[in-house]
## 1
Amino acid sequence: MQDFLKQLPKAELHLHIEGTLEPELMMALAERNGVTLPYASVEEVRRAYDFADLSAFLELYFLGMSVLRHEADFEDLAMDYLRRAHAEGVVHVEMHVDPQAHLARGVPLETVLNGLERARERAARELDISTALILAFLRDKPVEEAMQLLEAVEPYRERFAAVGLDSAELGHPPGRFAEVFQCARQMGLACVAHAGEEGPPAYIREALEQLQVCRVDHGVRCLEDPGLVETLRERGIVLTVCPLSNVSLKVVERLAEHPLPRLLEAGLRLTLSSDDPAYFGGGMLDNFAACREAFGWGEATFRQLAANAIDEAFMTEARRSELQARLADC
Ligand code: HPA
Ligand SMILES: [Zn+2]
């Protein structure tokens, strides 16, 4: 089964590139850039990864990324992850990036975006991994800041497939960003948003109605509202579910209690992703294997999840056909 899961062509639709920063690279970049971290060793960094909730995680996530300063750091970060993903049978990766978090530290937009662009080109050439970039807005920051960021990325418009919404969810409903998302749509960008991870089903509804998202990141709390489940099913909206993330951030206590089997039974279109693999205990293959272990799913279920991701990905139709053919062959 592990062999099957590894060779299954997996597309990852929900990943924060800053969340792929492994402790080893964090320490190496801290040294290279003269950044002081409150950790003496890689082991100490790992020991700190015991999160009470999303906010507790975000504190360390923003601290960790303080070692990223130069274009080469962003290139190394992304290449490091894409190489690991390649070894796990991942063929396509869509990465959220949080420019506001870097701008606030004085790192210019072009440094972040040029570094990631170099990695994306190399991944396509060296690893045959296709990628897409998602411009994420920090939902706990002012709407005006998001609008300014959207204007600032205009010269880089072609590098992005979509806009997204992340960071602390509770108390930050998506509807506040309706105008920003409307402008993004006018620029030809697709829309996705985190909703229903820690936040209530009403946030998922808002993301659908006010942000007009084509996918919902997480969305696992939709089950609390049967009418919403019906809407999601009717419209074929994909939920990008991140099993190990949900355990790590205490959305569920144990994977065996995760709503994934009930979401499937409800006829929803699901995909599996790793979210922040360096912080949540594993990449794509670990997430797939953990689901196999917890739910006993057979090959057909994993095939369907992999197919949903390929069908729903931001990629050229030629690439989609190629990956669909690879999936049919495996
Ligand atoms: O898991 C997450 N949830 C919300 N925002 C985030 N930003 C990085 N990771 C996450
Ligand atoms: Zn996420």
Note: The chain has one domain: 2-329.
## 2
Amino acid sequence: MTDHPSSASDARRAAVALLDKVLGEGLLLSECQTQILERLEPADRARAQRLALQVLRALERADRVLAKHLRKPPALHVRNALRLGTVELCSGGAAHGVVNDIVNLVARHRRHGQLKGLVNAVLRKVATEGPGEWAKLRVPRLPKWLRAPLVQAWGSDAMLAIEAAHYKGAPLDLSAKPGADLAALEGAMTPTGSLRLQEAGQVSALPGYEQGAWWVQDAAAALPAQLLNAARGERVLDLCAAPGGKTLQMAASGAQVTAVDISENRLARLQENLTRTGLSATVVAGDVFEQKGQYDAVLLDAPCSATGTIRRHPDLPHAKDGAGFGGLIELQAQMLAHAWGLVRPGGRLVYCTCSLLPDEGECQVEDMLEMFPGARIGDRLKSLSGIDPSWITEEGGLRLRPDYWAEIGGMDGFYMAELVKAEV
Ligand SMILES: C[S@@+](CC[C@H](N)C(=O)[O-])C[C@H]1O[C@@H](n2cnc3c(N)ncnc32)[C@H](O)[C@@H]1O
């Protein structure tokens, strides 16, 4: 691809700024990208994001290649510029353009400008030796703080397969309105009924976007609403609903959905999604713990570590260190207990999290079944199509991992369970 030179440089500069925030300040891309990318043209914005994601996925490999050419690691900003250059050069980037741009980027830096000679020398070596070494390097591993509990939960072989899935990234999955014509989209149906596009490009330019025929939702994330199976006319409470993928699914099935979330910003996206798709739900800005009443069905998609989404969010393991996870686990247990009180006798609740940690999934449901004798696991899971029986857990939930469906592009890590309340 040929670019206007300044446009490629702007994207690279922004990508390094994003890396500085994630790797230096522990921010997630979602917490810093609006500010850094706002002045870029849409195409450069997309390119900067793509580059930052590519570097974060390949960070360990880039550092291994660079270690051979550096006596000691330079300041973080320079290291991030070198990492970007290395990843681009080792994935087929044209040496001249990449090296020039990265050298200029460092040269213009107030404090690190004097390191431009070093950057030039290192990247020229990487340009000749790096691409050959790259493919021989191991698939990047998760940092220890996250790897250790995941190895304990799923074993070493599964861990390697999960890391391979993280490194590959994710295809684009769509959930469609019933009866929507998807023929113009070049995709294939997953076994569970999502439409999967391997090379999607700009989402808003895809056929059917304007008409609201579909919405973006990972195939795994589409399963909790399938498990709840809301029927036309049922009163359904969607707790922690924004940006609303599951709300849309349940509204599309004709249920009367009340969608609750504490974040006004995220609810604005939910409202946009409802408007674009022409679906309706009652939208409530509020806290789970303030909700009252009795519903036929409740879906609780609790806030969690989001460790199941690393394929699409490779910033997470680098920005976080697990410090807040204990508080999240406590919050999930409290939310689950409150949500259970909102289910009418004979009604049902689906609990789910996009986490790979059993403490946020299997363990929550085991504790819940012990604490509430009127709760039992429902039967619906057995009739969902495309589910491998080995994904069903001891307590009766569904465990999904990024290494499942490896041959068609994986899926997000997720946990979900259907709990049915006894009639009184
Ligand atoms: C996993 S996300 C939900 C994703 C959503 N269900 C979907 O399918 O698009 C978790 C959500 O919980 C919300 N949240 C966190 N604490 C909350 C609380 N105390 N009350 C209500 N919502 C809360 C967050 O704002 C966030 O949108």
Note: The first strand starts at residue 172 and ends at 176.
